[in-house]
Amino acid sequence: MNHEPKIAVVHPDTLAAIGLRQLLQAVMPTLGVDAYRSAGEVPAGQADAYVHYFAAVAAVAAAPQFFAARRRQTIVLSPVPGAPLAGYHSICTSASERSLVKALLALEQSAHGGGRNMPPPPAGGAAPSPREAEVMTLVVKGLINKEIAARLNISQATVVTHRHNLMEKLGLRSVSALAIYAVTHGYVDISEI
Predict the structure, then answer these.
(1) Are 101 and 175 in contact, with CB atoms under 8 Å apart?
(2) Which of 75, 65, 57 is nearest to 11 (CA)?
């Protein structure tokens, strides 16, 4: 029997739900993520099996009793900054990708004690070399190749090589994914990104 903790995305926009599911799986790779168009699609016996619900404002408004019963687990996805529904945590989905990743990481760290209450990350995979770790932390902090080269006293070509090797080694495809990796593995504090 599978005891993997799970998150549910409840959003009437299928494309938005798919994108958020992928982002959540990147931030918290040890969790399963299911997507539904409405609270009514959540299987009857499964409603309380989810550790979190990421739900669109419209989905929460359409099923107020369902989400009120799960208020502590529900994060409202709002297209505007601020809390659109009193008593619920919220994340602004119209923010930049960097801001959205930072908000999700902050939520994971604050809600789960820096990840202590979450299952451990999957074992395996190559760790960055010390120099790759230096390059990674500077990339995640927002420095460009020229600035990284100057700070580490190496050529820009060497920075590009380290970045390429790092992304290949970790199987990542974006700076956002690299930021998630760096924060969740303790290379960078969330306040530094």
Answers:
(1) no
(2) 57
Q: Which long-range contacts (CB under 8 A, 24 or more apart) does 97-101 make?
A: 97/176, 98/176, 98/179, 98/193, 100/23, 101/23, 101/27, 101/176, 101/179, 101/180, 101/193
β-partners of residue 77 are 56, 91
Residue owning tokens 């799970």: 6
8 A C-beta contact, residue 52 and residue 74 = yes
Residue 10: count of CB within 10 angstroms of its CB: 28
Q: Which residue has the tokens 């659109």?
A: 84
The string over 162-190, giving b where at least 16 C-beta atoms fall within 10 Å of a residue's C-beta and e elsewhere, is bbeebbeebebeebbbbbbbbbbeebbeb
Tell me the C-alpha distance between 17 and 125, whole Å.
28
CA distance 26 to 170: 12
pLDDT of residue 115: 47
Distance CA 10, CA 53 (A): 7
Number of residues written out for the chain: 193
Q: Torsion angle, CA of 105/139/93/83, rounded to 10 degrees?
A: 50
- Rounded to two decimals, the pTM is 0.64
Longest dimension (CA), the chain: 59
User: Which pLDDT tens digit goes with each residue over 6-41?
Assistant: 889 999 998 988 888 887 777 666 678 899 999 999
- From residue 184, give the alpha-carbon distance in Å to each of 40, 59, 131: 33, 30, 19
